[in-house]
């Protein structure tokens, strides 16, 4: 028996499947997977060609006839995980991937939430340590409190990198199997960029601005990694409708549905818990602007999701800043308002000003859209 440790195998199943095929070619057949310790157990066998597919199935559904005809056979089952093997030269059908995507998305969401919470705690402890180190009372950072802060900070960094790793793997997995990739425009002419900050809080103004840019011959390419850098290519004027959409959970069908109706995905958020996206669709002059829906009820639902999602995401840093101010009151009273403490309080208060302004902009957006829908209803 041979044992191999792969701690993150379930977050990159495609790589794991290739690895299992390679092990089979070397004469090592999989016989067990320990879900707790993450160890794979192999036994010696005759080297041979085999293809593997890993499925996460909560319902434990039986193998379909189509997959059986394609040569797939159950090789191993551990908990909700199923490992299928295929020794045919040509494979025409493959098991579905939805279960893995849903499971890994849930893990990534939890890791992201924990990293935010843990990061806020670590930030407070760092501020407290900085105050104690500069208080002039001979506090030694190498003591127990310094060790606790270092351990907590290390834990926060590890969780943060785990969340980023999961998001990257999920994004690559979605792009390959679920058609969630952005529709990238191949540029042939002159390009330029325009910085537009806090654009997500005013979707209606964003959509109008992008449509106006297209009418002036500036075709939207996408948003850069900086998230506020809008890239354009100079070309012929076009009539284009844009839609900013917000999804708490965006399934693979969400992308397939809109793309099948001619919409092009120009942006989708990468590392946020929720999904923000910008879609575009060309139309002829004089035609009604394409929209996801013309029904007022459905449009209200979409607007409500945008407002609630934006407000909650904006209020999080305000809540963290308020918590830091509140939890530090005893230390402010004990140490007095030293220059360092005044500086830190000022930084925290300033960090609250921008999110509050963004909340105000989001509320104004809701009021504009309510007025617009009321006028449409009268018509």
From TrEMBL:
InterPro entries for the chain: DUF2812
Spans through the membrane: 110-133, 145-166, 306-327, 339-360
Protein's name in the database: DUF2812 domain-containing protein
Keywords, sorted A to Z: Membrane, Transmembrane, Transmembrane helix
Pfam families given in the database record: DUF2812
Domain of life the protein comes from: Bacteria
């Amino acid at each position: 028996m041979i044992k191999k440790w792969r701690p993150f195998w379930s977050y990159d199943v495609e790589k794991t499947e290739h690895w299992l095929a390679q092990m089979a070619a070397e004469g090592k057949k999989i016989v067990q997977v320990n879900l707790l310790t993450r160890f794979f157990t192999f036994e010696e066998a005759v080297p041979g060609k085999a293809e593997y597919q890993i499925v996460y199935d909560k319902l434990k559904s039986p193998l379909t006839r189509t997959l059986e005809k394609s040569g797939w056979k159950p090789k191993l089952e551990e908990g909700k995980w199923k490992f299928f093997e295929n020794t045919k030269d040509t494979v025409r059908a493959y098991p579905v991937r939805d279960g893995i995507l849903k499971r890994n998305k849930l893990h990534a969401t939890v890791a992201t939430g924990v990293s935010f919470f843990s990061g806020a705690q670590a930030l407070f402890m760092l501020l407290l340590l900085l105050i104690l180190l500069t208080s002039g009372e001979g506090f030694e950072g190498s003591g127990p409190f310094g060790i606790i802060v270092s351990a907590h900070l290390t834990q926060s960094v590890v969780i943060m990198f785990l969340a980023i790793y999961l998001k990257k793997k999920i994004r690559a997995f979605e792009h390959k199997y679920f058609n969630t990739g952005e529709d990238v425009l191949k540029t042939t002419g002159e390009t330029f960029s325009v910085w537009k900050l806090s654009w997500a809080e005013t979707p209606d103004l964003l959509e109008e601005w992008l449509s106006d840019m297209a009418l002036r011959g500036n075709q939207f390419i996408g948003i850069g990694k900086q998230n506020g850098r809008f890239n354009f290519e100079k070309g012929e004027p076009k009539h284009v409708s844009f839609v900013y959409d917000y999804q708490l959970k965006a399934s693979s069908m969400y992308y397939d549905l809109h793309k099948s109706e001619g919409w092009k995905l120009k942006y989708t958020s990468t590392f946020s818990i929720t999904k923000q996206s910008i879609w575009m669709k060309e139309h002829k002059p004089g035609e009604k602007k394409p929209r996801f829906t013309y029904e007022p009820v459905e449009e209200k639902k979409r607007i409500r999701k945008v407002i609630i999602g934006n407000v909650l995401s904006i209020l999080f840093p305000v809540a963290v800043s308020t918590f830091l101010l509140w939890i530090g009151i005893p230390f402010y009273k004990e140490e007095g308002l030293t220059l360092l403490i005044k500086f830190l309080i000022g930084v925290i208060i300033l960090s609250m000003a921008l999110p509050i302004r963004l909340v105000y902009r989001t509320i104004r957006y809701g009021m504009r859209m309510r007025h617009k829908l009321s006028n449409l209803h009268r018509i």
